[in-house]
């Protein structure tokens, strides 16, 4: 089941200088830490003047859609899906 969340989160990322890629490794939401073990789709969207990076990531049991706002440098949890494992 997919649930829309739209709440701020903390994200630990890895930046690879040779490929210029950002890889989310962990996210923290509601005092829980979720380790990310798979990066799915990544794309960008424009919302007015803002550039937003959208990442689809998952762990063993949950899938997350997270967004990074390049103007405010804030991360948001957009959606969560359970039952994928």
From TrEMBL:
It comes from the Bacteria. This is Uncharacterized protein. It comes from Candidatus Gottesmanbacteria bacterium RIFCSPHIGHO2_02_FULL_39_11.
């Amino acid at each position: 089941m997919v649930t829309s969340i739209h709440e701020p989160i903390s994200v630990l990322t890895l930046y690879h200088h040779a490929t210029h890629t950002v890889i989310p490794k962990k996210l923290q939401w509601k005092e829980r830490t979720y380790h990310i073990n798979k990066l799915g789709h990544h794309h960008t969207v424009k919302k007015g003047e803002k550039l937003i990076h959208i990442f689809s990531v998952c762990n063993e049991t949950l899938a997350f859609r997270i967004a990074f706002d390049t103007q405010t440098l804030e991360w948001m949890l957009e959606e969560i899906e359970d039952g994928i494992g």
